[in-house]
Amino acid sequence: MRKMNILLIEDDLEHCYEYRNEILSNNIHVLHIVHGCNAAFDILDSQVIDIILLDLELHNADSDGIFFLQQFRKIEFKYRKPFIIVITANTSINTHSIARKFGADYIITKSKIDYSPKFVIDFAYTFFLASDNVVKVPTHQSEDEGKRIVVTYLEKIGITNTLDGWSYLIDSIYIAAKLDKVNLSKDVYPKLARKYKKRTYSIQKAISTAIEKAWRVTDWHVLADNYPVEVNYLTSMPSNKELICFYAQKLRHDSVIMP
Q1: Which residues lie below 8 Å from residue 49, measured CB to CB, with a gap of 6+?
Q2: Mean confidence (pLDDT) of the chain
Q3: pLDDT digits (tens, 9 = 90+) for 124-148
Q4: Distance between CA atoms of residues 255 and 114, nearest Å
Q5: b/e burial code for range 172-203 (CB count within 10 A of at least 16 → b)
Q6: Taking a C-beta distance cutoff of 8 angstroms, is the pair 172, 183 a contact?
Q7: How far apart are alpha carbons 160 and 239 in whole angstroms?
Q8: Looking at residue 139, what is its pLDDT?
Q9: How far, rounded to the nearest angstrom, does the alpha carbon of residue 156 sit from its chain's CA centroid?
Q10: Hey, which of 8, 52, 80, 195 has its CA 20 to 30 A from 23?
């Protein structure tokens, strides 16, 4: 069973951390967090999203949830339209009516007694499981084409062929995109060690160094645009697995994996 892909549109950082921690605790879903509408549309343009969790009152963002719903209606989705759950502290019946008019599928108020990120995600999962419109992703022709797509991903965040970890990352992402569950130490690094005749530690270290350099020298706005995922606040950069899994999933959704 593939993971549920969630887009959280929320400008309250505390709520973002709560949802992120809930996802990290179970590791069975994928969460994208953005703080405004423009960033949300960028995600929808590049990812197949199953569930949108939308805060209506985005006080610190570029617009509000009602504006997002109005613009969302204009999008033509290639695979399927995400299910929208509005999460709001606003209890106005009129506001809820407007949100539903513009396309909200369900509304959960934060004042609800049993409200919690876990409640919302579990609730969303019931719709995900019940959906009979499973995403059917077509495939391209070759492994070379898939890897060319991966190269474009990496170049956008400053990882180029001047770095030792570049080739390892390309192969890692392509291999991971074919796996239901990614275990780098078991399924990815050993394959690369055999291919490149290197120790697994050397491959792991080269990938980590490439990521570290990208996060050190690439403009943070560019990183945020092309890697719109919260990173570890201690290291300020993604781990090998986080980056590989993110782009592996993106690769699957961009329809470039051979069956």
Answers
A1: 5, 6, 7, 32, 43, 82
A2: 84
A3: 888 787 664 444 444 444 677 788 8
A4: 39
A5: bbbbbbeeeebebeeebbeebbeeeebebeeb
A6: no
A7: 18
A8: 45
A9: 16
A10: 80
User: Whole-angstrom Cα distance, residue 203 to residue 154?
Assistant: 17
Q: In this structure, which amino acid lies at residue 223?
A: L
Domains in the chain, CATH or no CATH each:
4-130 (3.40.50.2300), 143-253 (1.10.10.10)
90 vs 257: which has the higher pLDDT:
90
Could you tell me the two tokens for 160?
């180029």
What is the pTM (predicted TM-score) of this model?
Answer: 0.52
Checking if the pLDDT of 230 tops 80, the result is no
| Size of the chain, expressed as the number of residues it contains | 259
Query: How many CB atoms lie under 10 A from the CB of residue 34?
Result: 23
CA 26 to chain centre: 16
Strand partners, 33: 8
Note the pLDDT of residue 217.
Answer: 92
CA distances from 4 to 41, 70, 247 (A): 18, 24, 16
Residue 27 backbone class (left: φ over 0; alpha: ψ -120 to 50; beta: rest)? left
Place of tokens 């719709």: 127
First to last CA, the chain: 16
Strands 51-55 and 106-109, sheet pairing = unpaired
Name which of 258, 239, 255 is nearest 175 in CA terms: 258
Say if strands 51-55 and 29-34 run parallel, antiparallel, or are unpaired.
Answer: unpaired
Work out whether the CA dihedral 98, 81, 19, 128 comes out positive or negative. Answer: positive
- Strands of the chain (E only): list them: 4-9, 29-34, 51-55, 83-88, 106-109
Neighbours of 3 (CB within 10 A): 17
